[in-house]
Amino acid sequence: MIYFLSDYSQGAHLKVMEALNKTNxxxxxxxxIDPHCERAAALIREMTGLGADCxxxxxxxxxxxxxxxxxxxxxxxxxxxxxxxxxxxxxETGAVEGTxxxxxxxxxxxxxxxxxxxxxxxxxxEDEHTAMPRMVYLSQPxxxxxxxxxxEMQTIAALCRELGLYLYVDGARLGSALCSVRNDLTLxxxxxxxxxxxxxxxxxxxxxxxxxxxxxxxLNDHFRWMIKHQGGMLAKGRLLxxxxxxxxxxxxxxxxxxxxxxxxRGTGAGHDSKDEYKCLYFDIARRENxxxxxxxxxLRELGCRFYCETSxxxxxxxxxxxxxxxxxxxxxxxRWAPEQDGLIPVRLVTGWGTTEEEIDTLLDCVRxxx
Amino acid sequence: MIYFLSDYSQGAHLKVMEALNKTNxxxxxxxxIDPHCERAAALIREMTGLGADCxxxxxxxxxxxxxxxxxxxxxxxxxxxxxxxxxxxxxETGAVEGTxxxxxxxxxxxxxxxxxxxxxxxxxxEDEHTAMPRMVYLSQPxxxxxxxxxxEMQTIAALCRELGLYLYVDGARLGSALCSVRNDLTLxxxxxxxxxxxxxxxxxxxxxxxxxxxxxxxLNDHFRWMIKHQGGMLAKGRLLxxxxxxxxxxxxxxxxxxxxxxxxRGTGAGHDSKDEYKCLYFDIARRENxxxxxxxxxLRELGCRFYCETSxxxxxxxxxxxxxxxxxxxxxxxRWAPEQDGLIPVRLVTGWGTTEEEIDTLLDCVRxxx
Amino acid sequence: MIYFLSDYSQGAHLKVMEALNKTNxxxxxxxxIDPHCERAAALIREMTGLGADCxxxxxxxxxxxxxxxxxxxxxxxxxxxxxxxxxxxxxETGAVEGTxxxxxxxxxxxxxxxxxxxxxxxxxxEDEHTAMPRMVYLSQPxxxxxxxxxxEMQTIAALCRELGLYLYVDGARLGSALCSVRNDLTLxxxxxxxxxxxxxxxxxxxxxxxxxxxxxxxLNDHFRWMIKHQGGMLAKGRLLxxxxxxxxxxxxxxxxxxxxxxxxRGTGAGHDSKDEYKCLYFDIARRENxxxxxxxxxLRELGCRFYCETSxxxxxxxxxxxxxxxxxxxxxxxRWAPEQDGLIPVRLVTGWGTTEEEIDTLLDCVRxxx
Amino acid sequence: MIYFLSDYSQGAHLKVMEALNKTNxxxxxxxxIDPHCERAAALIREMTGLGADCxxxxxxxxxxxxxxxxxxxxxxxxxxxxxxxxxxxxxETGAVEGTxxxxxxxxxxxxxxxxxxxxxxxxxxEDEHTAMPRMVYLSQPxxxxxxxxxxEMQTIAALCRELGLYLYVDGARLGSALCSVRNDLTLxxxxxxxxxxxxxxxxxxxxxxxxxxxxxxxLNDHFRWMIKHQGGMLAKGRLLxxxxxxxxxxxxxxxxxxxxxxxxRGTGAGHDSKDEYKCLYFDIARRENxxxxxxxxxLRELGCRFYCETSxxxxxxxxxxxxxxxxxxxxxxxRWAPEQDGLIPVRLVTGWGTTEEEIDTLLDCVRxxx
Lengths: 370, 370, 370, 370
Known about the structure:
Chain A is an alpha/beta fold. The first copy, chain A, contains 15 helices and 14 strands.
C-alpha cells in the first residue's frame, strides 16, 4: 500500500534520526535545559529576527502547545476566537475548554478568519455577563491548506493590537506554508506580527515536537511552569533540541538533504533573502510542496476538479466514487467529506518520505480508470 | 419612571416577604437541611409527580444552577449542546467552560433546538479527537420567549434517550411558560421527559432562588457535594425553602394572591387537571402573562409589529426610533437589538409587581405618538 | 430547644429585615449596580479609609467569595498557602482546587499562620517543577476563634510584600474579631495591610452576604467578570447592598439596635477613634461577644476548662461526657472533637438573636449537673 | 564528567534506538492505533496476567499519565490521597490540582502510605462540606527508593476496596522495584491489586514513554478521549509501541542486552516463575540495580552511612561536605537535602548507560579522600 494519509505516518527524516542516534549516549540535564535546546533556540531567534528577548519552548505536540499557550494567556473569563474549522475547535477533544476557556468559533471563509469576523466575535464580549475574547487563534496554513497573505495577516495583527487581543498562530504545517508558491508572508513577518506561534516539527520531518516562539514577554512569563503544569514537559527534553538542531542548522546544499525532484521549484516568494531557509526543515517542506504540486498538476491535467484550492502539501481532489474505491485498493488516504453528486473529496498528503514514484503510480492509476 | 426592564427589578412578592419575616427568628440547621426545604421539596415532588426518588435542590441563581448541573453530569471531555442564543452561551461569562466543558452552540430556530440540529451537533463527536456531546440544554421558554410544544419536547427527549444524551431544561421563567395560552406541555410532562430542570424563582416572585429537580439518580449522586464544590451552597439555606413553600403551597383562591385583572385569563391548556397550579407561583405567572398579553394586544391594535412572537411575560415590539426615544423619558426597558429600517426591537417585561395602570400608561403614550 | 449551634441558624437581624421590607417594591438595575450597593460600598470605602480606588463587591457567601478571589489572583500554576485548619482547606469541598489551584496546607499554630510557616511553604516553590505559592490566606478570627494581633498581621503583611505574595483575609466573623476585648487590629489596619479581605455578613446579622474589599487594583481588574464566571453574581444584587447599608450606616445609639446587656462592654482596643464602629454591624458583633464572654466567664467560674482560648463569639469548653449528653436534651450545639479523657470539646456560638436568658439557662443547667 | 544525576540523562538503550531506526520508514496510522502499539499492549496483557479486558495506553510522560488517570477517575469534588513526598505533590507543579482535584497530602513513613494514614485522610471526607477522597496514589518504588512489600500492598489494596477508593500506582521506576533484591511483589501481584498503574519507560531505557495499565473498566471507559483532552496524545503514537515492543519482547539471553556484570545478581524474589522478566526492560532494571548495589556496598565498606536505605537504582549516601565538593569536580549528581552535622545527603542514580568503570572510578575517588 502507498500512503497519502498524512504527513506523520512515518518516523523522522533520516537526518533527524541520525542526529538522535549520534547524540544518544550524551548525558545532559533534563526538561529542555541542555545545549541542544539552547542551540536550536538560538537558531530560531536568529531565523525569526526576534533576538534574545523572545521565549522559545520545545513542545511535544500541537494540542499540548495550543492549550498551554491559551491557558497561559487568558484570565479565567476570557475566550479565544477561532474559525469553526480550527484544529482547537474540531480536533482537540475540548482540550482548550478543559483549561476553562471558551473557544468562540466563528464560521470562517475558506478556513480563514477575517477582520470582520473577528470584530463581530469581539463585540459579543459586551460586559460582565459575557465571556471576553482575548486572543485570536489562526493556523498558517489552515486546516484545508489555505494561506493568509501578508496583507491579510498584517490587517488582522493591527486589529488585534487595537482591540487588545493576543494573536497566536498554529504552525503545525508552517514549513509547507512558508515554502508555498503562493505565499508572500515570511517567517520574519509572521514572527513580528503575532504574539506567539509555533514551528511544527511533527508534520515536517521530526519524530515529534513543535517549537513554540513567544514574542510577548508577559505571555512568556513563567511559561516553563505552565508547560509542566499542563503535563507537557518532556523529561529527556534534549530530544526536541536535537531534532530542531538537525532541522534548522543552516546548510549549503539542499540536494544533500532530499533526493529526487528539483527542490528549488515549488518555492514561493515569501523569502526575506535568497539565503533564507537553507536548512533541512525547509528542504523537506519544499520537497513536500513540490510533490504535492506535481500531484495537483497531474490530476488537473487528467481533468480533476478540486474541493478546495491549496498550494501546500495537501491536495483535495474531487474523485468519482468508483475511482476512489479502486484507488483504495492500493493507496491509503482520507475521505475528507461525504460524497456529493457522485464525487468524493479526498485528501492526499505528501510527507518527508513521499517519493516521485509514488506520485506517478497514483497518477497512472487515475489515468487508467478514466 | 415605570419599569418594563426585567422581571427581577423588584424584591419579592409580598407573600414571599411575609413568609421570610414570619420565619425569621426560627433557628434551623444550615445549608438547606431544614423543615422548610423539606416541605418545599415535598411539594415539588408532588407537583411533578416524580415522587421520592428525584433530587430537589434549592440554588441561589440560574448560572450557579446551570454550571453545577453540567459539571456534575459530564466527564471532562464531554460537551453540552445549546442554541446559539442560549443563556449559558450568551449571558454566563463562560461559566460552563470554566468547569472545563464546551458549550457546543448551534444556530437554533426562533431560539429553539430541533432534533436535526441536535443530531448534527451530536455527529461532530466522531471519535477521541473530538469533544463528545453528552447533554442537551434547552430553556423553556427560550431567551426570546418562545415555547417548545409538547410534541417538540417529546421528540427531543426521545432523541436524547436514543443518543445517550442528558436532557436538561433551564426554567428561569418556567412559570410564565407553563401558564402561557399557547403552552400544551405540563409540569408533569416536563418532569417526565427531561433528566433535570429547574423551576425559576428569581424571575417569578422570589427574592432569589431556583428549585432544581433531578430525575436521573446518577446525576443526583452526591449532588450536594457538587453544589458546595461550585460555591453555590447558601449558609442559611432555609431562606430558599421558605420562599418556595410560600410560592408552591396549594391555595384555593388566586385572588388572595394577586390583585387586579382576571387572572384566570391567560391560562393555557397545559394543565394536568383543573386543580393544578393553584398556588402563588402560578398566580404570579398567570398575572405576568395576562399583563403581557394585554400589552401585546394593545400594541398590536395600535399597529405594532413584533420582533418575535411570544406568549409569555416578554413582549418584543418593533418601535420607531423616535417613539423609543420618547418612551425612554418615562419608561425603563431594554433595546433588544440595533435599529433596522427605522425600527428598534425593544423588550418589555412584566413582573410580579407590574400593574394594569402601568400597562395602560405605556399604551397611552404609544397612542399619543402615533 | 435553645440554639448555640452557629451564628447563622436564624434569619437576619430585624433592622436588616426592616430594610429589605422597606425597599422591597423599589425597581433597580440588577447584578449589584444600584444605589443601595453604591451607598454600601461608599460606607465601606469610608470605614476602611481605602477611598475610591478600592474595589467593593457584594458576594452571596464565603466559599463563593474565597474561590473567586483566589481564582482571580493566581495564574494556573500558582497556589495559596493556608493553615491546615483553614476554612478553604477543611470546609469548602475542594472548591479552590476546583478552580485549578493547590491549597498548600501548613500545620498552623492555634489555627494561625506564622512568618516561619509561610516562609517554609514559600520555599517549596523551588522551580518549574513545583507549584508556586502566590497568596497567603488567613482568617480573622481563625476557625477556632483565635486572633492575629496587629504586630502579627504587620509582620505577615511585610513578609508577603517581600515575597510577592498576595495577602487575603477571610472575615466571615470579622465583626466579632474587631470587637473582641483582645483585639488590637483595627479595620483600617487590616484594610491597609492586606490586598483583599471580606466583611462577613452571613454570620453577623445579614440574611446572607459578604462585602469583599479589594485594595490591589490588579486583583480588582475585571472582577465582576470573575464573579459572574464563577456563578456568584446575584440577579437582585441590591439585596446585598440594602443589607450592608442597614448594617453599616452610622448610628448614634447602639441601644436602638440591640437590646439587653451593656454592649459597651466587650469592646476591645482595636478602634481607630471613639466614634468608630457606630453602626448595627458592630453593635451586633459587640453583643455577640458580650454574651460569649458572659458564657465563658460563667463556665470558668463553674470550674470549666477550655479546648482553646478565644475572645470572640465562639466558646469551646471541655465538658464531661455525661454533662454533654444532658445538655443535648435542651440545647443544640456542636461536638467539636472526639471525647478525650472523659471530656468532650464542644462549641457554643452566640448569634444576633441570642439572649442573656439563654446564656443563663445554659449556665444554670451546667451548675445543676455539677 | 561522569553522570550519576538521573536515569534519564541519556537517550534510549541502543536496542530501543535500533528498533526506532528499523521501523522508521514504516507508514502506520497515528495516535497509537498501529501494530506496534497493539503488539506491545498484548505483551503487557500477557505479562500482567490481566488479559484482554484491561486497558493499555502508552503515554509520553509521568506527569501527563498521572494527571490523566486522576482526572478520569474522580468526580469534581473528589480528591486523591498521596504521601507528602509523592511526585504528584512535590514535582508536578500542581498539575493534578490543575484538573480541579485536591491532592490530600499526608506525612508518609519512609515515603510510604500506611493503612492508618489512608484511613485518617479518608475520615476527613466527612460530608458535603469536605473534599472526598476517592483514590490512593502510591509509587513503587517511592521517591526515595523504598518499596512496598507484598503484604503492605495487599493490606492497602484491601482497605481501598473496602472504602471504595481507587488504587493507582505510579511505576516511573517500576522495573528497578520489581528487580530489587528486597522486592517480593510481582508484576502480576501489582496488576491484580491495583486499579491502574504504569510501567515506566523514560527512566528505564526508553527515549520516553510510560505504559499505563487500567484494570478497572469504568476508569478505562473513553480513556483515549481523556488522553487527547489532556493534551497527551502523541501523533506518531507508534513510537511508544515500538519502544515498548523492544523493551518487553521476551528474549532468551540477557547478556545479549546488557554488557558487564553478572546481571543475574541483584534479582529479587519477586518473580512469578523463573522464566519471568526475560526481556530487555528487566535486563536494564537488573543491571541498574546491580550497579547501584555495587556502589552501595562499596560506599558502605568505605564507612559511609546512608540518608535512607534503598534497594533500587538510587543510592543516598551521607557524605562529608568537603568530599561532596571534591566529587563535584568530576561527577554530576544531586544534593538531595541541606547539609546537617557536616554531612550532605546526595543522590546517586544508575541508568541504562552506567558502567562498572564509572562506579569504580567514583569509589576510588571516595577512597582517596578518606
